[in-house]
Amino acid sequence: MSSFADALRRPHQKRLYRRIMSGPLLLTRPSDATRAHASGVNPDRVLLFGNGVANGWGARTQTQALPGELAQALTERTGRGTDVDVVAGVDWTIENAAEVIAGRDLTGYDAIILLIGVSDAFQLLPEQRWTAGLVQVLSELLKRTSPSTGITVMGIQPISTIGVFDTEPGGLADRWAERLNQVSWQVCEGRARVHYVDPPAANLIREPVSQAGAEATSLDHFHSWAFVQAAHLAPYLDAQSGVEHPARVSRNTSQSRQRRLDALWKTHLLEGPPEPRFDAIVRRAQQVFGADGAAFTVIDANRQFNKAVAGFDITEVPLERSFCKTTITTSQPFVVGDAETDTRLIEHETGELGARFYAGYPVEAPDGTRIGALCVFGGQPRDPDSVDIVALRDFALAIQDELALTVAGRTHEESRDPSIPFAEGRPASPRSSVSV
Questions:
Q1: Which domain of life is it from (predicted)?
Q2: Where exactly does CATH 3.40.50.1110 map onto the chain?
Q3: What does the alpha-carbon distance between residue 69 and residue 55 come to, in Å, rounded to a whole number?
Q4: Which residues have C-beta within 8 Å of that of residue 97, sequence separation ≥ 6?
Q5: Using CA of residue 252, residue 256, residue 260, residue 263, what is the dihedral sign?
Q6: Could you say which architecture CATH assigns to the domain 257-410?
Q7: Residues 316/304, Cβ–Cβ less than 8 Å
Q8: For position 44, what pLDDT does the model report?
């Protein structure tokens, strides 16, 4: 600690923090899919990990919160699509974050942004413990990511900018956040692929106090965070946008059959009748592409099951006649201009639908497993270059968002419980002092 007086204040800060967080916190936080997207081809994939602003306090959807703002800001700078996932927990600290990361497959991300430390700074965590925790987190991230993945450590914002804490600007908590940021910069310096970035200026990130407060309608602080992050990340992502870079190679590698079946089982898509929400998306895709047919398909153990269809009424296709089984082997679109001449399909039958033209985009379960595809097709050949890949991806993402809402609905109580931040089979973080 910086002084004996500060050491005496630390127990008081911890008690105050627990009292604040155990009281009626009136802010909302996103309850939809833990991801956001921006339209475009060759999408970059970014993970936001941590707490504080990553939790999206005050926003109802991830599109309104930091993931949505960051996705749009990056796409505006790169001209490519962007997928931003968020993994955040209100009870995470620098000392338990490494345990949350352990066991997760992070190899497919082009960049990871670490946002953590608000509660640590407010509770005046000693810098030796902060250093040890940060070193452990970075070691885990470096171990679990691809050699091309950039890791950004965002500085802790001034605690006085977070309305719920009601602290004085420049007070003890603000000074301690600044001190931990200095330590973070020193830890990041010299580590390959790791960069420290200061938070936005304090006057740009004042967060709402409560839903009833005057500031509750303003979500501008998410835009400010996204602007700083995008300015830092965009040049790095541009340099890593080639298909040969390890992160992209990783996410374009075939996933195991068992992983797909496990993820598919959790979605419950093989149960029940057709669902209007999927039917509407598929019908719209058929109309936009002027296709003979369109479908949302999932690949089971030995068949292609058409969960939603437009233009035909076949619900199952044997795998040997499935274009979609090829689509799910990578995270990229699969377009066949003419099935009769495409050399990739020498042994492929055109199937019961007699399709010669096909365009499909993989659909992922909430955990990132490719379980099926959104596809359009027709009996006449088409020029593959005429296919609007951006629109095709947007329809696939619309399906993914609906799937995420399904899983979130089934785990409603868990997702509302801060001690269980992951849905369906994901490990909760260890309990400790609560964070925001």
A1: Bacteria
A2: 4-251
A3: 14
A4: 49, 50, 114, 116, 133, 137, 429
A5: negative
A6: 2-Layer Sandwich (3.30)
A7: yes
A8: 97
Burial of 151 (0-12, 13-18, 19+ CB in 10 A): buried
How many whole angstroms from its chain centre is CA 153? 17
Report yes or no: 376 and 359 within 8 Å, Cβ to Cβ: yes
Q: Where in the chain is the domain with CATH 3.30.450.40?
A: 257-410
Burial class (CB in 10 A: 0-12, 13-18, 19+), 98: middle
pLDDT tens across 274-326, in order? Answer: 899 999 999 999 999 999 999 999 999 999 999 999 999 899 999 988 999 99
Query: What is the distance between the terminal CA atoms of the chain, rounded to a whole angstrom?
Result: 23
* pLDDT of 49: 97
Q: How many helices (H) and strands (E) does the chain have?
A: 13, 12
C-alpha span between 202 and 180 (Å, rounded) = 16
Mean pLDDT of all residues belonging to the chain: 85
Fold (CATH) for 4-251: Rossmann fold (3.40.50)
Predicted TM-score of the model (pTM): 0.85
- Three-state SS string over 155-185 comes to CCCCHHHEHHHCCCCCCHHHHHHHHHHHHHH
| pLDDT exceeds cutoff 70 at 7 | no
Give the burial class of 10: count Cβ atoms within 10 A of its Cβ; 0-12 exposed, 13-18 middle, 19 or more buried: middle
